[in-house]
Amino acid sequence: MMKTVLISIRAKWWKLILSGKKTVEIRKTAPAEIDFPFRAIVYVPKVGIVGLFDCEGITRTNLYDSLTERSCLTAEQISKYAGGGKICGWLIEKGSPVEFDNPLPVETSGQTRPPQSWCYIPNYRANLVSYSFDNETYGCTYVNTAEALKDAAADLKSWAPYYQTDGKKIYVGTCEFFKPCLSACAFDAVESVICQADDEGFGEWADDYLSDVTKEQYQELEEQLDAVFNAWIEKNGLHAGFYKINSYSEYLFDKAEGEFVTPEIYYSRRVKKEFSGKGKE
User: Fold this and answer.
1) To the nearest 10°, the Cα dihedral for 64, 55, 31, 113?
2) Domain count, the chain
3) Of 38, 149, 36, nearest in space to 101 by CA
């Protein structure tokens, strides 16, 4: 599985990355002993988590001139940032930058606050969407709605010789993946230990054991149990692959244009075509 980091990038630099003009992100440090490519989830200050790109390599150099054009920075700017030392150029894989449908809170990455530069995070899935033709059967996941609609259109075009496709409706919704939570298991864990002491024959000496655990102590145990379990999930790659769709948006297929669009756009185009046809008459 591709490793993932959360990286903070200013809005103007993120726009240049999306445009393809900026293909190197300058940092003082970079992940060590990591397989390439790795995924960078992008956080824009005061906006949220907005997208991603894949990093295909890291170049460490003090030859700042070699990075100016690709980083959209001057040699002087890079030198000032690097303090005259070596700098890390994160090489952005061509075609990999993607913008999400909406900014997402930093908490969706498992962090309570954004990193000053970057940090490792678990595999990120809060942005994923899926589509369905019947609002019951959802399948593959996509990084944003545009990608889902593009794939759905290609799928629908294969039906064209056999079915009426114009106006065909699909549903696109955000995936909520199942995430195990042990925060309600602290009481059961304590009760299990009390029963263990009784079963092993400690008798009256075990009667009052753990009977004075406070609410705060239970809460502390709940948090630690949940953290340890989810760390185990992450380490072993045991994330749940199933999800549910809590809400969705509807789109209609415009056969003439070969794309899915919102109902507003679809019917607006139909009205224009009707008026255009009457004008010709």
Assistant:
1) 100
2) 3
3) 149
Phi/psi for 79 (5° steps) reads -60, -40
- Examine the domain organization and report whether 16 and 116 are in the same domain: yes
- pTM (two decimals): 0.84
Distance in angstroms (rounded) separating the CA atoms of residues 268 and 220: 57
Tell me the percentage of the chain whose pLDDT exceeds 90: 70
Select from 248, 249, 251, 247 the least CA-distant residue to 262. Answer: 251
* CB contact at 8 A, 110 and 120: no
Shortest CA distance to 141 belongs to which of 156, 125, 121, 153?
125
β-strand partners of 17 = none
How much is the CA Rg of the chain, to the nearest whole Å?
26
Quick one: 98 and 174 in the same domain? no
d(CA 221, CA 178) in angstroms, rounded, equals 22
pLDDT in tens, 22-51: 999 999 999 988 999 999 999 999 999 999
Any idea what the CATH number is for the domain that residue 68 is in? 2.30.130.30
If asked whether residues 138 and 246 sit together in one domain, one would say yes
Tokens of 132: 């369905």
What is the rounded CA–CA span in Å between residue 238 and residue 134? Answer: 30
Residue with tokens 């995924």: 39
Look at strands 169-177 and 243-254 and give their pairing: antiparallel
Q: Are residues 95 and 20 in the same domain?
A: yes
3-state secondary structure of 51: strand
Residue type, 135: N
Q: What residue numbers bound the domain in which 193 lies? A: 186-236
Q: Is the pLDDT of residue 281 over 60?
A: no
Judge contact between 51 and 98, C-beta under 8 A.
Answer: yes
Average pLDDT over residues 57-70: 96
